Amino acid sequence: QVQLVESGGGSVQAGGSLRLSCTASGRTFSSYNMGWFRQAPGKERDVVAVISGSGRATYYAASVKGRFTVSRDNAKNTVNLQMNSLKPEDTAVYYCAADHPGAIHTIPWEYDYWGQGTQVTVSS
Fold first, then answer.
1. Exposed e or buried b for every residue in 66-83, given b needs 16+ CB within 10 A?
2. DSSP 8-state class, residue 97
3. Is 102 in a helix, a strand, or coil?
4. Partners of 47 in beta bridges
5. Which of 11, 87, 106, 124 has the most Cβ atoms closer than 10 angstroms to its Cβ?
6. Quick check: 8 and 119 in contact, CB under 8 A?
7. Distance CA 95, CA 111 (A)
């Protein structure tokens, strides 16, 4: 069982930055691939970024590549999402999720554990 808690959301103007963090419970955090997803009102939940358990492999959605950076600290059971050059279309609830080791997945239903979400609002 893994419990995830996100933090760091908020409101920012376009062009600004935010850093989201997700803290996990449990002693096997390093074995999980960790994903960040987002869901805007009326839209499906989409992948933003994924990082492997070791941190050596990452995936980014095309819409955020070059602006967002995913990282993790397995000693602290945390995964972070640094978001730069934010755009109004980045506005959404952001979720972190844990997936069992193996191939990096980008589909929400492949993930076993989810945080409660944190709101990110980018104004123009």
1. eebbbebeeeebbbbbbb
2. E
3. coil
4. 37
5. 106
6. no
7. 11
Coil/strand/helix, residue 109: helix
CB-count burial class (<10 Å; 0-12, 13-18, 19+) for 108: middle
For residue 3, the one-letter residue type is Q
- The one-character DSSP state at 56 is S
pLDDT tens profile 53-92: 999 999 999 999 999 999 999 999 999 999 999 999 999 9
What secondary structure letter does DSSP report for 62? T
pLDDT per residue over 20-53, tens digit each? Answer: 999 999 778 999 999 999 999 999 999 999 999 9
By residue count, the chain amounts to: 124
Q: Where are the beta strands (DSSP E) in 10-124?
A: 10-13, 18-24, 33-39, 46-51, 58-60, 68-73, 78-83, 92-99, 113-114, 118-123
Q: Which region among 27-31, 105-109, 113-117 has the lowest average model confidence (pLDDT)?
A: 27-31
- The residue written with tokens 């390093």 in the block is 30
Q: How far is the C-alpha of 111 from the C-alpha of 104, rounded, in Å?
A: 10
